[in-house]
């Protein structure tokens, strides 16, 4: 037994403290990015690849000393209890505030990413890492066996596979993105295991590796830019940038080892899971509480500092779940932590703090929650469509064959979504046009109410006045000539649905025939604001009705006259308009009736060419509801397959390939059909040859 122990001591490499230092630096950078929302920080010490390299080395050491079952049991024993406590907290908060979540099992067995709309996803958006980590743990014995046999060839093969998935656009969303995550971080894990099997790489090897990864990153940037400027949003770039920083930092093992002996590093390495789980929630609290009056950059730095300062308190309260010594659940250990937790819960629900916290909506004065992947509406393409896309019929590029498939999609979706009857137009960038009708739908020479797509025309008219200097986006609306009580609201806030105006309500849910824009103005003037101006995104038809009145006041022309003289006549559109009819306010918020062919042309001009005003404009959005200067669209800037809008029964969008899709129905495309509408449109795009490129300025 003694000889076996001695043999194990000499055959199992001792823990490399440089790796502890590397992991601590990576955790520091993760917290900074998640707390600040500064995308440029993701280019520095690309953290997650480095963390998985460390994970691979530590797993290899464990697998050398114990069986796979014992190694995984130890890891999951440490992982599951803190994860379950955090997941239970988030799930109960979600249930309390009645917000949507993913399946319950995903929170407690995260083989899929758990999600919740609580705090606008701040509490779950970073949990993708746990999904990747769990899968890597399950695959670790297999990865280790391959690495022992083939050594550095395994991470090299992984790099090739990651690039291949990206080039073929397989890892863009949904299951493909999750698979890309697992492949990427398994590759990093294999690199850490190869480190232990092959021994520490020589400085020369690290030198050439850093140069190769840097060259790869530069080359990939020429091929494709990351969404939102976030390295994490592109698997290949994340791999190359992460590989560069890992190789570069490991050039200095003595410095990393020295850092690993500091109190900060010791703290981060003692509670890595607890810190990762709770730091985003901690940052969210400070974003809610720190006053807006502080200059933006100073405010961000203050919040980052407060987040770091609060983490020892957080780990004191819940760290026992992760770092469990003998007797960890004793009364003297648990009771002070429970009392502190109760005091924190009371302070959040009673007193001045309670009025500053909103668990449902995200204030505009804080960054988006941390994200590692494009926020794309999950699209599940039907198997029949997938089979067609893989078939020789599709690859032969015969347009008539594609038209037949699009008609099949239209017929199926019309019935499956309960739309009654529908028609659709698809126009490709190279000029192919398809028109399809399903059911007893009006012909294409007959116009339709385009509903809220009217807002794109209203926005264009406003921006034309802005460019002429007749309006400023930050002008207060004033009293509107009738003593309007919320005159502090600005043009920008009306355009971006952040005015806080009350919704125009009726007893039966429909707007009475003959309702005028002035009726809407008077009603909203009497009602209190739903939220402070500029604080929250809250889709507002009332706000766009006010914009129509502002257009009329500034020009002395009616909205309808402006619409025709400034836009539609010159483009050759044959439109009609209405006010207070069809159960709608109509007017500048939803009052245009036009043909779908004209709408298709407008969609390309507005969303793709961006030339509906004199100067080509940029979206400058930050939220799903389009917080920019060009109105509302169901998308996230720089991270959606297409830009567009749903007008109740009419849908219009264009993707990065320039493929326009128009869907017009007798049924409802919003509410319960919203996600299916996105799938419907994407299936048509794909069959037409589009649907691959993201559209972003």
Explain how this protein is built.
The protein is an alpha+beta fold and 697 residues long. It has 3 domains: 2-286 and 293-324, no CATH class; 379-445 and 596-697, Beta-Lactamase, CATH 3.30.450; 447-594, Beta-lactamase. Helix content is 55%, strand content 6%. The chain contains 27 helices and 10 strands. It has helices at residues 2-11, 17-36, 47-65, 68-96, 104-108, 128-150, 153-167, 174-198, 203-223, 235-249, 253-260, 263-270, 272-289, 296-318, 331-349, 352-356, 383-390, 392-395, 399-416, 454-467, 491-495, 517-526, 541-555, 559-571, 587-590, 596-609, 674-688; strands at residues 422-427, 433-438, 448-449, 576-577, 579-581, 584-586, 592-594, 642-646, 650-655, 660-665. The radius of gyration is 28 Å and the shape is globular. The model is unreliable at 1-11, 371-377 and 619-639 (pLDDT under 50).
What is this entry, summarized?
The chain is α+β, with helices and mostly antiparallel strands and 697 residues long. Helix content is 55%, strand content 6%.
Indicate the structural class: alpha+beta
The radius of gyration over CA amounts to 28 Å
Cα shape = globular
Number of structural domains: 3
**Helix amount, in percent?**
40-55%
Strand content: 5-15%
Q: Report the total helices.
A: 27
Report the sheet with the most strands, covering strand number, pairing sense and barrel closure.
5 strands, antiparallel
């Amino acid at each position: 037994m003694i000889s076996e122990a001695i043999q194990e001591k000499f055959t199992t490499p001792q823990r490399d403290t440089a790796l502890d230092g590397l992991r601590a630096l990576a955790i520091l950078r993760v917290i900074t990015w998640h707390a600040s929302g500064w995308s440029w920080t993701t280019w520095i010490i690309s953290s997650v690849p480095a963390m998985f390299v460390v994970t691979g080395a530590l797993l290899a050491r464990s697998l050398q000393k114990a069986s796979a079952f014992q190694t995984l049991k130890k890891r999951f024993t440490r992982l599951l209890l803190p994860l379950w406590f955090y997941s239970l907290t988030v799930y109960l908060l979600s249930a309390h505030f009645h917000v949507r979540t993913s399946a319950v099992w995903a929170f407690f067995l995260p083989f899929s990413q758990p999600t919740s709309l609580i705090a606008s996803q701040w509490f779950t958006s970073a949990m993708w890492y746990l999904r990747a980590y769990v899968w890597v743990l399950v695959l670790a014995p297999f990865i280790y066996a391959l690495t022992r046999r083939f050594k550095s060839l395994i991470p090299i093969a992984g790099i090739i596979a990651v690039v291949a998935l990206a080039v073929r656009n397989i890892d863009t969303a949904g299951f493909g993105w999750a698979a890309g995550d697992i492949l990427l971080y398994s590759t990093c894990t294999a690199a850490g295991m190869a480190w232990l099997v092959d021994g520490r790489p020589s400085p020369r090897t690290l030198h050439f590796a850093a140069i190769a990864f840097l060259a790869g990153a530069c080359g990939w940037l020429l091929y494709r830019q990351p969404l939102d400027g976030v390295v994490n949003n592109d698997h290949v770039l994340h791999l190359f940038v992460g590989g560069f920083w890992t190789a570069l930092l490991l050039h200095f093992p003595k410095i990393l080892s020295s850092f690993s002996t500091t109190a900060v590093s010791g703290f981060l390495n003692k509670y890595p899971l607890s810190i990762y789980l709770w730091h985003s929630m901690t940052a969210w609290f400070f974003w809610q509480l720190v006053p807006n009056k502080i200059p933006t950059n100073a405010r961000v730095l203050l919040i980052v500092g407060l987040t770091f300062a609060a983490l020892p308190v957080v780990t004191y309260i819940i760290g026992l779940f992760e770092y469990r010594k003998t007797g960890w659940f004793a009364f003297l250990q648990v009771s002070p932590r429970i009392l502190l937790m109760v005091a924190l819960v009371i302070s959040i629900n009673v007193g001045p703090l309670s009025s500053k916290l909103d668990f449902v909506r995200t204030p505009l004065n804080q960054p988006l929650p941390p994200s590692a992947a494009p926020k794309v509406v999950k699209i599940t393409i039907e198997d029949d469509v997938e089979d067609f896309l893989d078939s020789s019929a599709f690859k032969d590029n015969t347009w008539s064959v594609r038209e037949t498939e699009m008609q099949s999609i239209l017929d199926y979706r019309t019935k499956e979504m309960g739309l009654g009857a529908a028609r659709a137009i698809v126009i490709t960038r190279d000029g192919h046009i398809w028109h399809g009708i399903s059911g007893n739908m009006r012909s294409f020479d007959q116009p339709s109410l385009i509903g809220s797509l009217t807002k794109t025309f209203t926005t264009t008219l406003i921006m034309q006045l802005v460019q002429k200097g007749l309006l400023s986006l930050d002008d207060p609306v004033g009293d509107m000539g009738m003593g309007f009580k919320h005159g502090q609201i600005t043009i920008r806030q009306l355009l971006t649905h952040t005015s806080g105006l009350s919704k125009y309500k009726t007893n039966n849910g429909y707007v009475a025939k003959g309702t005028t824009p002035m009726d809407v103005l008077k009603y909203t003037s009497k009602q209190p604001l739903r939220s402070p101006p500029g604080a929250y995104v809250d889709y507002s038809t009332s706000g766009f009705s006010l914009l129509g009145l502002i257009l009329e006041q500034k020009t002395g022309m009616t909205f309808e006259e402006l619409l025709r003289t400034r836009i539609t006549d010159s483009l050759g559109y044959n439109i009609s308009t209405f006010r207070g009819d069809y159960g709608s306010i109509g007017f500048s918020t939803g009052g245009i009736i036009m043909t779908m062919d004209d709408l298709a042309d407008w969609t390309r001009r507005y969303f793709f060419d961006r030339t509906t005003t004199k100067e080509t404009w940029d979206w400058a959005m930050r939220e799903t509801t389009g917080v920019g200067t060009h109105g509302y669209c169901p998308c996230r800037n720089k991270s959606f397959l297409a830009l567009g809008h749903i007008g109740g029964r009419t849908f219009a969008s264009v993707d990065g390939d320039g493929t326009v899709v128009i869907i017009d129905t007798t049924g409802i495309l919003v509410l319960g059909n919203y996600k299916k509408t996105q799938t419907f449109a994407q299936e048509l795009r794909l069959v037409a040859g589009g649907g691959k490129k993201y559209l972003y300025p």
